[in-house]
Structures are given as C-alpha cells and as structure tokens.
Amino acid sequence: MYSSVKVHVGTRLPAHPTVHGQVLMGDLSFEELRQPYPQPQFERFTERTPAMRPARCRSSGGFRW
Predict the structure, then answer these.
(1) Sign (positive/negative) of CA torsion 32, 24, 55, 11?
(2) pLDDT value of position 4
(3) Which of 3, 33, 34, 41 could form a disulfide with 28 if both were Cys (CB 3.0 to 4.6 A apart)?
(4) What span, in angstroms and rounded, lies between the C-alpha atoms of 36 and 61?
(5) pLDDT at 40 over 60
(6) What phi-psi label fits residue 57: left (phi over 0), alpha (psi between -120 and 50 degrees) or beta?
(7) b vs e for 36-51, b when ≥16 Cβ sit within 10 Å of the residue's Cβ?
(8) Which residues are bridge partners to 63 per DSSP?
(9) How confident is the model at residue 21 (pLDDT cuts 50, 70, 90)?
(10) In terms of Cα–Cα distance, which of 35, 38, 36, 33 is closest to 12?
C-alpha cells in the first residue's frame, strides 16, 4: 500500500504529531519544551499522535515518547 501526502512549501504543522517535529523537539530541554506546550495533553490528530508531553528519561537524560 502506498500513501502520499502533499505538503506545500510554507505550510505550518504542529511539531508533536510529525516525526521531524519530534526529532527537533528531542534537542530541547524539558523547560524549553514546556514553553510551547504548557499543558501536558496534546491535541490528537490520529490514534498514533502522542497524547501527552514526553516524560523525562533519567537513564539517557533525554525524553521518552
């Protein structure tokens, strides 16, 4: 099965439901991540969209989705 999505240059998408956005958000500190996402709940677009802000992962010092 092949699926394509057309996204035009200049289109803005929320960071949390996209893989590229999640990668970029992975570089943020927990405090920096809370600025654009003050609420722990995310808007869901599909059943696979993360529903909550990622938790801190002590072992790696990063986040866990």
Answers:
(1) positive
(2) 66
(3) 33
(4) 20
(5) yes
(6) beta
(7) ebeeeebeeeeeeeee
(8) 56
(9) confident
(10) 36
Average pLDDT, the chain: 75
Q: Is-above-0.85 flag for pTM? A: no
Whether the Cβ atoms of residue 21 and residue 14 lie closer than 8 Å to each other: yes
What tokens does 33 get?
């991540």
CA distance 65 to 33: 13
Averaged pLDDT for residues 53-61? 59
Residue with tokens 């970029």: 24
C-alpha dist (Å) from residue 14 to 25, 46, 53, 57, 61 = 11, 13, 13, 23, 24
